[in-house]
Amino acid sequence: MTEERIEDTAEQAPEESSTKPSRAEILEEEGEIAADYLEELLDLADIDGDIDIDVADGRAQLSIVCEDEDSNLGTLVGKEGRTLGALQELSRLAVQTQTGQRSWLMLDIDGFRDNRREELIKKAKRAIEQVKVGGEEFAFKPMNSFERKIIHDQAARAGLVSESEGEGDGRHVVIRLADD
């Protein structure tokens, strides 16, 4: 009788495992995989930090924070966020290696991206006003895709047209009045 129960349970297990995980569950798994990878990196580099995981805007979002004022998290941000960008790509690759799927997770360290977002919104608003008053297009300096999206969103909200131009590290946003 014990053997029959074991066989019945074994027959039920494949059906339960065939249930596809929800998008939220997939994103949570991505966050956990990336957090494990980043935790190991922090340990190897002897850097203190806590990793917060969230799912928002259709992607896993991780933040490395530290309450200590003398924290050395800035070394993980690097000049203009370049090291942060590289760590984000490495985290995405760690997720892809384990899941077989491309990840679009976002990584923030010590509030850098949040601060950068606020800074770019201010720059976008000044440029939008300049375009509206002068009528001439405005070209921003080269930016990464995260930063360009912020500018595109602000231009769209203001009723202006924006385009990304250039290639590679020279890719930048140009905003102009919409053709009527």
Q: How is this structure best described in words?
A:
The chain is an alpha+beta fold. It contains 6 helices and 6 strands. It has helices at 2-17, 23-45, 74-77, 82-99, 112-134, 145-157, and strands spanning 50-56, 59-65, 106-109, 138-139, 161-165, 172-176. The strands form 2 sheets. It has a 3-stranded mixed sheet, sandwiched between helices. A 3-stranded antiparallel sheet has the order 4-6-5. Helix 2 packs across helix 4 and helix 5 crosses helix 6. It is globular, with a radius of gyration of 22 Å. The termini are far apart. The relative contact order is 0.10. Mean pLDDT is 89; it is low at 1-15.
Name the helicity range. Answer: 40-55%
Reported for the largest beta sheet, the result is:
3 strands, mixed
* Count of beta strands: 6
For the largest sheet, list the strands in their spatial order: 1-2-3
The low-pLDDT segments are 1-15
Separate helix tally: 6
Sketch the topology as an H/E string, one letter per element: HHEEHHEHEHEE
In summary, what is this structure?
By secondary structure, the protein is of the alpha+beta class. It has 6 helices and 6 strands; from the N terminus they run ααββααβαβαββ.
List keywords for this structure.
180 residues; alpha+beta; 3-stranded mixed sheet; 3-stranded antiparallel sheet; 6 helices; 6 strands; globular; disordered N terminus
